[in-house]
Amino acid sequence: MWKKNEETSPQPATATPERTAFGATEPRRAAPGPAAGSRAVLGDSIRVQGDISGDEDLLIQGEVDGNVRLESHSVTIGRSGRVKADIHGRNISVEGKVQGNLFADEQVVVRESGEVRGNITAPRVSLEDGAKFKGAIDMEPRPAKAAATTPAAAGTSSSGASSAGGGEAAAEAGAKGAQGGGSASASPRAAAGGGQGKG
Amino acid sequence: MRWFQRRRPEPRATEAATAAAETHRSLALAELLGELHPDRRLHILDLGPAVGANISFWSDRHRCSVQVADFYRSLPLPPGADPEEAVRDALPGAHGSVDLVLAWDLLNYLDRDLLGTLAGRLGKLCHRGSVLFAMMSTVPEIPREPGSYLIHPDGTLTYRVDRTRPRPGPRYRPADLAKLMPGFATDRNFLLRHGVQEYLLVRTEDL
Hints:
The structure holds two protein chains of two kinds.
Chain A: E1 15-19, E2 25-29, E3 39-42, E4 47-49, E5 52-53, E6 57-60, E7 63-65, E8 68-77, E9 82-83, E10 87-94, E11 97-99, E12 102-110, E13 115-117, E14 120-121, E15 124-127, E16 132-138, H1 151-157, H2 164-180, H3 188-193
Parallel strand pairs in A: 3-6, 4-7, 5-8, 6-8, 7-9, 8-10, 9-11, 10-12, 11-13, 12-14, 12-15, 13-16, 14-16
Antiparallel strand pairs in A: 1-2
Chain B: E1 15-17, E2 22-25, H1 27-34, E3 43-46, H2 52-62, E4 65-68, H3 83-90, E5 98-104, H4 112-125, E6 126-137, E7 141-142, E8 148-151, E9 156-160, E10 167-168, H5 174-180, E11 184-191, E12 196-203
Parallel strand pairs in B: 3-4, 3-5, 5-6
Antiparallel strand pairs in B: 1-2, 2-9, 6-12, 7-10, 8-9, 11-12
Helix pairs in contact in B: 3-4
């Protein structure tokens, strides 16, 4: 469910609006950089089966079984977040669990509570004390946006979750699905797979 | 081509222990670091748990790629599993792709069968000239579980080990390692004053 972010790491104090459960906005501390803006929150009762893409930062507190593609934005896997697939982002921060590969244009941080089973490709990688990690780390800079041009990425970006508005709509659909006990679709694959809210 | 060569021995180790962690000068690691080729990007297989400072050390300072296996957490192997298959699953990678293996103190925690199986897998991952760094205990008791080791820029190591519940150690000797790890030969070893013998083993045979 869309909701106010309750478990995030300290961030710079630039106030920008963040959508809450029912579309209201609330000041929050934004991620640094030119792409700083609103951040979508996938609540801890939400389970998404399918790919997620969009044009804004994302905090995942729920479960995602599908690729996350937010190449120009920050992706945070919160403490209760679980992702089982690859994640592409500008900055990726893991406080929960990820089983898949991480690709970041700038940095990957695995926090103390984080657990990653997969490979990390990013110019900068930081593992905090206590973080669990199993996989390979490649810190060589990768060709800019190469991944974004793959057929898979193109296919995903044509889904309803590809644009900023689409991403919001998809996630809100997920929230509504969770509330009503129905399915929550974030992409065509999700629709086929039948994502469901478990809260 | 062999990427590291014999050098003169370093001065004796010095030690400083703290309550939570112990810092020791690693002679083998110092030798290893002194011989890294600055223009070659090595692929390192770390059999220990992930330590952020070590990742930064190898990646930022030496431009190496690092694969963290955290092998001890893969144990015990699944019941009924073929040990070779299980070890291969725990240590994926292409044949001959690994230049340096950091085994730390893991070998002290493996019985002879598993050590042989692991050595067989490492032999395939390594190529002729690959180096394996291991720390073998020469004292009767070892900590309950393998430690984690933090590399400092000057080559010293901070050991994080729990010595409150020791267990018997295998006390593998050079002859044991030679028998259990065919294809690897001891290039150098250093007995430190706290009872740890550091080894630099070199893969001597082609795949």
